[in-house]
């Protein structure tokens, strides 16, 4: 291995001839290839790394490249999508289209299914979205009545079972998700397959063109008066528990809130309880305003609306209305005072007990940290 080889590869990575870079990368010894990947990652050159995730680069090297790309994305570095060969599009369905839609909450994600019947070619689309409404994976299937029945009746926990929803809402949601970057919630071993599935899904998305958009069905049961919906959201924020959490916020949100609160508590000034609570609220509000972006707020809104729809189908009218109010406020006014209070409470369910432990029987009573107590 010579430094000249690595230098030459780095010069090629800085250029525009991606085909030559890939050919050279595929031909060098494994140790040199590993050094190139490490050097590009250290330089945060996501574009060059993404270019290496393509034929004729061997799969073992491409796995190293994907790990490096995943590391950059986890640090907030924007990395373009790898080049992919365009899948062959499917033939369009005959008109008219008879469509049906279904929703299932799966862990921190949501599974959306839409089936269409036109002429002799029934077809369906099965997609898994992440917290940000980005596509994790998905694909098309031949939607015979038997195939759809087996899909909907497949064994799964009661809270994860499919609930029927307007096909127009599913189609609108898939079209919106198609405009977003690919999900980064990927298992590296499955990333290539999931990307291929996503590419195939997007190449045939025009099959949904015959289905007009429709809003989320759970918005209909929400109060028509925005003020009443806002009041319910504030009440929900005041009583929010960990069991109410649909999915956790990003770890960086929790970590920064914890650090800010610890810094404030370590200061020499000790505030009265009411003032300390106000300061805590200001700290959490500021952190959430900066770190909980509109995309994650929209994802949180959609998941509450999904849960509202599932609860409605299960006969839980009270829970359905509460989730519908939360979802409608976060969706229509994501930066409102009511939405801000809910996001603050949501963040605090993750951090308020972070680092705490249960006291032992022989522990001494807690002592004051000292400092100046303000009036």
Instruction: Tell me the distance between the termini.
Output: 70 Å
Protein structure class: alpha+beta
Element pattern in H and E? HHHHHEEEEHEHHHHEHHHHE
Task: List the uncertain runs.
Answer: 352-375
Mean pLDDT: 82
Based on CA inertia axes, which overall geometry fits?
Answer: flat
Kindly provide the radius of gyration, computed on alpha-carbon positions and rounded to a whole number of angstroms. Answer: 25 Å
Strand content: 5-15%
> How are the strands ordered across the major sheet?
4-3-2-1-5
Question: Largest sheet, if any?
Answer: 5 strands, antiparallel
Give the number of helices.
14
| Tally of DSSP β-strands | 7
Helical fraction equals 40-55%
Describe the 3D structure.
Mean pLDDT is about 80; it is low at about 350-375. The chain is built from 14 helices and seven strands. α1 (about 5-15) crosses α3 (about 30-40), α10 packs antiparallel against α11 (about 275-290) and α12 (about 295-315) runs antiparallel to α13 (about 315-330). The longest helix is centred in the last third of the chain and has 20 residues, at about 295-315. The chain has about 375 residues and is an alpha+beta fold. Helix content is about 50%, strand content about 10%. The strands form two sheets. It has a five-stranded antiparallel β-sheet with strand order 4-3-2-1-5. It has a two-stranded parallel sheet with strand order 6-7. The termini are far apart. The protein has helices at about 5-15, 20-25, 30-40, 45-50, 60-75, 145-150, 165-180, 190-205, 225-240, 250-265, 275-290, 295-315, 315-330, 335-350, and strands at about 100-105, 110-115, 125-130, 135-140, 165, 270, 370-375. β1 and β2 form a beta hairpin.
